[in-house]
């Protein structure tokens, strides 16, 4: 089974397409920052996503997983544009699994209006809702007899300009503990997909205003998993991490579209485990670096 993991595509739209009512609070600062500084890194995003769709077809990807940050400011026009841009990638035989990133739930209006659900709700199904929190997370998807994908929501609105940190709600973390112990899940290879990194590429905790606030509690819950891996985004650098006492390999996809930093992972799974191969962008299309394939069994 082949799985494509990508993240942080940050599809933007021309600012004049964003309705006047959306230009509030942090969005004014974030929008200006994007226009003046960050935007240049994501200019070819749509073209790159078309190329990533072609890659997925060519490599016969069975399942695609995106760990969020589809947009810059969490506006409806951006979510609609991103949904359209990833459409070819979602058309996999086993489907598509995703979670929102902090940019997709930028301010509280995104939650109030359920904007992410409106555009990506069809990919937020749950095969084991009895294990979820009262809010319905995490989502568990069972594929065949050997694979479970657990989608964990770690992003929340951050109205403060200086903060882009995340948190897994306590109820969801408790549900996570139930999930990793449940016999319907724990005998499988378990892929945990979430937006926030559990650690930085050097293995140290991420900063207080940028990282996942309860990353250590999540690592404790994951330590019980006998076989699996963690897929995440948020840090725009593709990397792999093994931590003492935690069996699952941690794979950060970086950003699939950040100019000059493009990255992703392709996983190949058999019954008990498999391998992960990093991918990159050569200016025209996405390619695999097969010399860097690692075991994730
Ligand atoms: Fe991002
Ligand atoms: Fe992020």
Automatic annotation (TrEMBL):
Write out the GO MF terms.
Answer: hydrolase activity; metal ion binding
Indicate the segments forming the Calcineurin-like phosphoesterase domain, all copies: 1-237
Hydrolase keyword on record: yes
Q: Which UniProt keyword terms apply here? A: Hydrolase, Iron, Metal-binding
Protein family: Belongs to the cyclic nucleotide phosphodiesterase class-III family.
In Swiss-Prot or TrEMBL terms, this protein is called: Calcineurin-like phosphoesterase domain-containing protein
Q: Which organism is it from?
A: Sandaracinus amylolyticus
What does UniProt list as this organism's lineage? Bacteria, Pseudomonadati, Myxococcota, Polyangia, Polyangiales
